[in-house]
Each structure stands twice: as structure tokens, then as C-alpha cells.
Amino acid sequence: MTANKLKFGILGAGNIGCYIGAHLIRAGIDTILVGRETLAQEIRENGIRITDFTGTDFHLQPDQIRYTTETESLADRDIVLVTLKSLATEAAAHRLNTVLPIGKILVSFQNGVHNADKLRSILPEKDVLAGMVPYNVVRNPKAHFHCGTSGTLLVEEQNTISQAVLSGLQLAGLAAKTHSNLPGILWGKLIFNLNNSINALSGIPLREELSQPLYRKILAATMSEALSVLKQSGIRPLRSGSMIPSIVPIVLHFPNFLFFRVASSMIKIDPQARSSMWEDVQRGRETEIDYLNGEIVTLAKKNGLSAPINDTIAVLIKEQENHGRTFSGISALDLAKRLNISV
Fold first, then answer.
1. Which of 17, 231, 318, 327 can bridge 13 by disulfide, Cβ–Cβ 3.0-4.6 Å?
2. From the centroid of its chain, how far is CA 227?
3. Is 3-180 CATH 3.30.450.40?
4. How far apart are CA 225 and CA 183, in angstroms?
């Protein structure tokens, strides 16, 4: 089947799902988005606007978009991209098991390292691929989604199955390729995603956060602790593009002028970019902290190790989940003190 004849579904169409889905729809690919009723209403009134750090700016009218809250609408889809929060994976998989016929393709475009395995365990008769989304998308009012960082979508290499997914994504103008070791890639991404929680705690945009040497020192300590836990657990995180996990803690200690010169060669970040965890805290939603910093803490405990920095960050995020709408952020100095990081 040619790419433009494939039927795509997006399950958990929030920031990432709407960003990818809008590109598919604009390319003329039959796509259904499934997500929350609040966003469905917003899209019915405004359509979807997509912008990014390169200047891309396009708008889909409401009548161009099929956005529903019903998982059952995915029954005739050839490929389902799962962009749910990790904590919703298990329940969603059980719903999909009653909806999707045998042999359908699913791609886990989610944070965390175990979502594809969880989907496979519940959906053994479907073709499940791990995937990796490298960029950050922020939701603005009136269903306006802005991608503030660069990167290439990665899909687990499985011959014709992964090529079918790739053909649709590339037809939609999205940079995408396959990779033979997605577990290693996902562990590598998790190291970078440890900044999601620090950005949420800072309460400021990513670029502004990374412009402050003390926040960078905190991030470097958080990453270094996680890398030590992975190494002692026999896990090797892989690079994605130019981003090398083991090198980043060193780069974070560079002075501003040198840091941004080196960092700009690895990833582009515009002034609007924020982490998805910041958005969850601001909206008073449960975050993915257990699948990011919490994953490092769990792995450490499993292997008789400790990860006090990641553990404390996880505790701080959970505190904010209860009253996020009134949370304005923690200064770098205060955060360093709470984490016992010298200043």
C-alpha cells in the first residue's frame, strides 16, 4: 500500500499527537486523532495551528480534522501512533485489544523506556514498534501547537513494517528514520529528558533555564548520577543524532558563550520552548515523573544503588502535582540547596 493510502490513527492526541497528526492531515493522509474532550472542543472551534522554530506556520480548518474521544474509531486504521502519557499505556492497551484487528501496526511515540514492551505484552497479535520523539511541543491557546526544538523521529527497524510507518511520516514532511536499537536510544533520550523535571521546577522557558549556569550545574549532576546508575546496571544509553549522553554533563559546565556554541550544533531551541512536564504541572495534571527521574530511582534500588538527586527531584515534582496552578518555580539557588549540590 502506498503511503498516501495508509490510514493513520493517533491515540492520545495531545501536543505531540496533534503536531504529528496535523502534518499527516496536511499531506492528504487519512488520519483520525483520539484524545480529550476539552481539546476536541477547542479544535472544533479553532481548527489546529502548527508552528515551529524554523518559521513553519500552517492552519487546518475544523472541517479538515477528525478528532474524537472514542478509541473505537481506530478500528479501521492501518497504523496507530500511541502518543499517550506513559501512565495511561496499560489501560489504553486493553481498550485497543478489543478494537484493533490482528496484524495492525502500533508505534509507541512516548516518553520512558518500557511502553512498547507493555503494549506488546497486552497486544501480542499486533505489530508493536518502539519509537522516539526528539522534540518539544508546547500547546498554546486555540489549539496552537508550537515545536520549539529540532530532531528526527526514530522508529524501531522491522523490515516492511517500519518502512510503512516511515513512508507516511516522510510524506507528511516529518524527518524520520529507522534504528536497530531503540532500547538504547530510549535510555539515551531518558538521560536528556531528566531536564523535563528541572525545567518544570524552574518555571521558566528551556532556553532561559539553560542560560543560567547553576541550573546547568544541577542538570549535569542529575544526568551524571543517572549515567552512573545505568553503567553499574549494565545499560548503555545511545546517542540520538549529535546528542551524546555521556558528553552532555561536561558540556553543561562550559561558560555560556561556549555552551551555546556547542549546544547549538546538537539541538536547536527557540525562546518559547518548555518541557511537557512544566505544562502538566501548570495544568494540574499528573506528570510522567515516575517514568523519567523515577525510572532512575527504581533502577538504582533494583541494583542496590542510590540516586538521591533524582529521588529528591521526583519528590519535588509530586509535591507540585497537587497545587501546580499556583506554582511559580524554584530558583536555581534554592533548588541546588534542596538537592545538596554545592554552589
1. 17
2. 20
3. no
4. 20
